[in-house]
Every structure is written in C-alpha cells, then in structure tokens.
Amino acid sequence: xxxxxxxxxxxxxxxxxxxxxxxxxxxxxxxxxxxxxxxxxxxxxxxxxxxxxxxxxxxxxxxxxxxxxxxxxxxxxxxxxxxxxxxxxxxxxxxxxxxxxxxxxxxxxxxxxxxxxxxxxxxxxxxxxxxxxxxxxxxxxxxxxxxxxxxxxxxxxxxxxxxxxxxxxxxxxxxxxxxxxxxxxxxxxxxxxxxxxxxxxxxxxxxxxxxxxxxxxxxxxxxxxxxxxx
Length: 230
Hints:
This protein is α/β, with parallel strands linked by helices. It folds into 2 domains: 1-91, no CATH class; 117-230, no CATH class. Helices cover 35% and strands 30% of the residues. The protein contains 5 helices and 12 strands. The strands form 2 sheets. The protein has a 6-stranded parallel β-sheet with strand order 1-3-5-7-12-10, with no helix packed on it. Strands 2, 4, 6, 8, 9 and 11 form a 6-stranded parallel β-sheet that branches. Mean pLDDT is 77; it is low at 111-117.
C-alpha cells in the first residue's frame, strides 16, 4: 500500500468514526435510540488520533502531540468505562505543560537557525495557535512544507516569496473552532486532500494555466476553516 493510499484510508476511517458518533448523539438526543452504551466508547477517536500522530499513520509524525492525545484518550476512555477513578479533566493542566514545552522547543530552534520576528527562512514551517494568533512569512527557496494547527485561534502563513523544493510542498493542517490562512505564490496550484466536518477548506486562488509549483493541503478541519489565496 502506498503512502498516499494509507493517508486516504486513515482519513476515511477517521471521518467515518466522527460521522457515526455524530449520528448516534443526534438519534439519542431525539430519543429515537438508547446510544449510551455505545457512546461511552467515543474517546476511542481521541486515542485513534494520538496513535496515528504518534506513528505517522495517515498524517505527519509528531511524538509529543501523538503521545498527548493517546494518553488523554486512554484516560478519557477509562473514566467513561469506570475502569479507574481518575477523571481526564483533573489532568487538564498537563495540556498546558505540553503546550508550553512545545513553544519552548520551537523558540529555541528558531534562535538556533537565526530566525527573527515572524520572518522564517527555514525549509519547513510549524505553527500552533491556541486561543491566540500566529503569523509566519516564509522566504525559503527550498520550502518542503510543514504543519499548521489552530485551536480556537488563527494562523496566517505567507508563502508568496517562497519556492518549493522540486516544485512541490505538503502542508498538514488541523483547525478546530479556528482558522488558517495560507497565501501562496502566483505560479502555484493546489491539491486539496483534507477532510472538513462542519467546516471548509476553500481554494480562493486565481485560476492558473501555467502553474509551475504544487502545494498539497492535507489534514482535518472541524467547525473551522482553511482559506488558501494568492
């Protein structure tokens, strides 16, 4: 199985799980079925996200966030099934610890490569916004892609001065109750492979007949939006 097939299968599986949970919640709320015994297992979705992120199955690999989602998924599931008395909400400060450590590591890396302000000359981009905003301007002439995440926040990326390595770059997006704006070069065309649930991934770039570069957008959007424009 090719890497692209694996990514698509992972997205289809995740989309099917989310869709099923949504349908069950709706039918249960209207009293049409008693979905309680089944819905107790819904934290498996959080665990699934963590495992996929931890091992790079269908998405870019990120050990820190993969382990975080996996641990929260296990704790949430255990609490839902009354396996142990520890409630996942009792551990929410750990999320702040992981988030702070992530910002610290990224800040140290940016200092090491000599990045100042919001101008980034590295060949990849990493941006994570939680109830805040993040902006990046990329000037790399060998840009390969990166990962953008917005949780109740916004991320803006300007790629208009960048050139893609081998004329192709891949950006993984994750937006939940947030938005991501990506500005692309004038000679760039898009390949959107992301999945949106109660949200949208919008291509607002101008039609190009002589595009020389390709930007691939992958990932998941839930009650949020990703807009790509030139």
